[in-house]
Amino acid sequence: MYVILVYDICKEGNGQKRWNRVFKLCKQNLVHIQKSVFEGEISDSDLFKLEGSIEKEIDKSTDSVIIFKSRNERWLDKNVIGLQQDDPFMI
Amino acid sequence: MYVILVYDICKEGNGQKRWNRVFKLCKQNLVHIQKSVFEGEISDSDLFKLEGSIEKEIDKSTDSVIIFKSRNERWLDKNVIGLQQDDPFMI
Lengths: 91, 91
Fold this sequence. Notes:
The structure is a homodimer of 91-residue chains.
Chain A: E1 2-8, H1 15-29, E2 31-34, E3 37-41, H2 44-57, E4 64-70, E5 76-82
Antiparallel strand pairs in A: 1-3, 1-4, 2-3
Helix pairs in contact in A: 1-2
Subunit structure (chains A, B): Homodimer, forms a heterotetramer with a Cas1 homodimer.
Binding site for Mg(2+) (chains A, B): 8
Cofactor (chains A, B): Mg(2+)
């Protein structure tokens, strides 16, 4: 399965810690393409585990994680305007 | 065509102005679902115009806009963990 994962973590309180942990979880499974955006091929079981881990990390009252799933990367085209994901400037 | 648009605009210098203008352009064409994330159905011609307008607004050396295009929304499933897009908390 091909997924696009975007998250918005509220930085108040221990938000930066939550942001870092969600970033780390995503980086272990997907490709980092923009500040809070990841994409990549992932198995159903790994995605299930990732979603479970993220669910434990975030504060559901302030944070948002959205995962788009496509059965096949071929059904998705991608257009990048500006910085490419491998630009060193990309954090 | 169904698209997911994510952007990361560098806030230095007149970055906030660029961010606001890109936000406005996207809001006129798509649904706002997360801080810098939009999705929605859009015609080829409207998408072409939106991409052109965004291209004029951003600083390509610091900003990044990624547009995922799917011929059909049916090929995309979506899972939201935490805040839903219509939560008033969502900016």
